[in-house]
Design goal:
Structural class: mainly beta
Number of helices: 1
Number of strands: 37
Largest sheet: 27 strands, mixed
Oligomer: single chain
Shape: globular
Number of domains: 2
Distance between the termini: 78 Å
Length: about 500
Amino acid sequence: MRQYFAIFVLGLILAFSSCRTDFDTVASTGDLKFSKDTVYLDTVFKNIGSSTYQLKVYNRSKNDISIPVVQLKKGLNSKYRMTVDGMTGNNGKIFNNVTLLAKDSLYIFIETTADITDANPTDFLYTDEIQFDSGANLQEVALVTLIQDAVFLYPNQNPDGTKEKINIEGKDVDGFYLSENDPENRNELIFTKQKPYVIYGYAGVPENKTVTFEAGSRVHFHANSGLYIANNASLKINGTTSTTDKLENEVIFEGDRLESLYSDIPGQWKSVLFANGSTNHSINHLTLKNAVIGLDFKNPFNTITIQNSQIYNCAEYGILAQNAQIVGENIVINYAGLASLSCVYGGNYKFTHCTFNNNWSNPSHFAVNISNSLSGASPESNALTQATFNNCIIYGSNFNEFNLSKNTASPFVYQLNNCLLKFGSTTNPLYQFKTDTEHYNNIILNENPKFYNVSQNKFNIDKTSAAFAKGNQAFIIPTDILGITRTSPPDLGAYQSQDFPK
């Protein structure tokens, strides 16, 4: 009987509670508290939606309150939009009679999509306020967004509604070829520092044409986008030494999400892909970040020079070279899902004063991978005529950061001179660092280079580093990646040693 009585009482409680559709509230008195007094929405390009930002609103009182209105000051004309505790209100702009319980809080999520013409012409800031209540009880939280103008490059739309496509490695992908005489952008084969560029899809460089990136140019790639250098086409990146942390003379390739949340997320865009037979490439002072594959070379026609360049946070490879010819000086690569540098299917490579590091969390990654074969190729192996590393650092978070994969059917020529290398013990004849003088000379094994800050991709060293003054003068590059004159004997890696800031 007691059991039935308890069920009856519980049913009454549920019945009464389910009938209640509102709370006894009092009007807000203007004493709301906020998690911040200004919400800064990070820089966005014109007409590209921002990330979603959060504001928390607190009712510290003992009363359930009703806020008569929560609205954007610019009303329905505001370029911001909100949700308030999951409600969308009037087009995300105006919310009436918002209830906030005693000692409770609510969340407001804010986004924006604005044009450069909406921003203040002197500082390019677009601003508004979230207003809580009105009159004597009015409280406001400021909203601030920097809107950046840009040149947008994208595939055209075909008459049937489909997007323009180009063929890459036998597949049609969303893309277009850069034009020397575009009616709006003029010569799209010359990138300048006047405005940043935003690329949608693959931007192709036509056969027998050269794309040039002038010092200071900035290129932002949308998701699944990239740069394609076609057969007989060329790439010239003409960055120069910068004098400030803003890298004002560096050429920068990265994704199109400018918010700090995205600053180190790999795989935001595809790659710079060099087709079979592309030719005459030179890269100087390039910083490339957050791609799937940074530089992807497919049997280019002749020698590529890469100097004073940095590649970070690639989902697969920083540089993937297939039967390529590369001369690399003052290169820094870090964080790659498979390998920072991977040279496969033979080729000819010479790297001097480079820092190849890999602190990716995947236990099977490498800083450097060298191979003279490729699964599925015909023939499967190809001659590796040279893989030389002089005055380099090859390091990272794994037990082994250096991998050689030799197919005996083709030549496999490699040599490391005056390099700091991380590698565990092995009886494999390919890795006899102390006794194999044909392939290894003056190897520093498993000693800490003491990089300044690996998590921030700062690979500077000081005099306490195991790489300090361990280089061979015969291989010296006169200046380091920052343009600082090297001393003799030189330090290993891309940076001349300096005292770290205290």
